Amino acid sequence: MYCKISLYLSLSLSLSLSLSLYIYIYIYIYIHIYIYIYIYIYIYRERERERRRERRRREERERERERERERERERERERERERERERERERERDFFNEN
Description:
99 residues, mainly alpha, 1 helix, transmembrane
């Protein structure tokens, strides 16, 4: 009888330990899964932030280039106006010189 009780206790203890071990393993696995998911999400968000920053930089550089082009166009227009004024003055001088 004592042997049977001892056997039952040892089986019970063994089952209990094995169940505990399984529970710990599952907890360990789930914790690591959550950690990996968190790391993946963090890395993904960082990459997205970096892409947005790069996109903003690119857009800003493009805007700056466009501003510079517009300034250059305006300078060219001003030069052309100045040339036209100079031509007009030359015509007037020529006209007055002929008379």
